[in-house]
Amino acid sequence: MTPPRKRSGDARPTKGGQGRPTRRGPQSRTSRSASGSTKRSQPTRMPAASATPDVDVHDPNGVRLQKLLAGAGVGSRRQCEQLIADGRVAVDGVVVTELGVRIDPRRQVVHVDGERVVLDESRVYLAFNKPRGVVTSMDDELGRADISDYLQGRTERLFHVGRLDADTEGLLLLTNDGDLAHRLQHPRYGVLKTYLAQIPGPVPRDLGKRLREGVELEDGPAAVDSFRIVDSQPGKALVELVLHEGRKHIVRRMLAEVGHPVISLVRTQVGPIRLGDTRPGRWRALSSAEVGALYAAAGM
Ligand code: URA
């Protein structure tokens, strides 16, 4: 019996999205975000694991591997034991088939079927639906509404992964995993982002072609990876754009350049993570499978 690993899109809130805006208390956090543009995502697998360990993965003071995996939502304790016995679990790159191995979840790296499982419970990964009018900062210097207003009760120092304009709504990943946050924004990994834009219509037939071929902006050419018309009416259209670019106001600038300035803009997906039905101002914890997929997207 092999437990089905949860896939991206299976995610359900595990801690409930609290996101009701309240004013900041005295402990304000600073804005932290590694910046950078991105290109196409190249998910990777873990390095080939050795079946004959030359590394001792045992930590006598650690926690049993199957207990950690079950706690991370990989499956029941019994199912996780089976995964281990089947040779599908690696610790620090070494396949572990022995039951009862104890490891340190904060220090050691675990993969199941080549996908990273984060066992360190101090790590936090949230999908936040930033509302319009909220600035992408954990502590806005000008006292405007910012992300921290929606995170009351969370004590971790969270990074926002990239930025959205104040006028843009949608998915912003928040985490205290600095390495992952940094890699997700690194141009080398080119994580794709999906946007829905409302623009003035009608949309000419060749608009997608022009955007795919690239338009000239003041800081250099920019192109979408894909474009589609979701809805088109005489005065207004809804279009979807997918980009690996991370430059400031990139979607607004591109659409203005082709004569269709944005009326409203929502980001619906970052790499493998979808906004789903998380409402503006709410957040949800990512599932273990979603975190694994993000690690893969970041080549980790
Ligand atoms: N492009 C924009 O124009 N704005 C955003 O917030 C994100 C991408």
Quick rundown:
By secondary structure, the protein is of the alpha+beta class. It has helices spanning 65-71, 77-85, 178-184, 207-213, 250-257, 288-297; strands spanning 63-64, 89-91, 94-95, 102-103, 110-112, 115-117, 125-130, 159-161, 169-175, 193-200, 215-217, 220-222, 226-232, 236-243, 264-270, 273-274, 283-285.
SSE arrangement:
Layout: E1 63-64, H1 65-71, H2 77-85, E2 89-91, E3 94-95, E4 102-103, E5 110-112, E6 115-117, E7 125-130, E8 159-161, E9 169-175, H3 178-184, E10 193-200, H4 207-213, E11 215-217, E12 220-222, E13 226-232, E14 236-243, H5 250-257, E15 264-270, E16 273-274, E17 283-285, H6 288-297
Parallel strand pairs: 9-15
Antiparallel strand pairs: 1-4, 2-3, 2-5, 5-6, 7-9, 7-17, 8-9, 10-14, 10-15, 11-12, 13-14, 15-16
Helix pairs in contact: 1-2
This protein binds uracil (URA).
Note the run of SSEs as H and E: EHHEEEEEEEEHEHEEEEHEEEH
Assign the structural class, choosing from mainly alpha, mainly beta, alpha/beta, alpha+beta, or little secondary structure.
alpha+beta
Mean pLDDT across residues: 86
Instruction: Please give the oligomerization state of what you see.
Output: single chain
Strand content: 15-25%
Low-confidence stretches: 1-45
Helix content: 10-25%
> Cofactors and ligands present?
uracil
Biggest sheet layout? 9 strands, mixed
What is the CA–CA distance across the termini? Answer: 28 Å
The total beta strand count reads: 17
Number of helices: 6
* Rg, Å, rounded: 21 Å
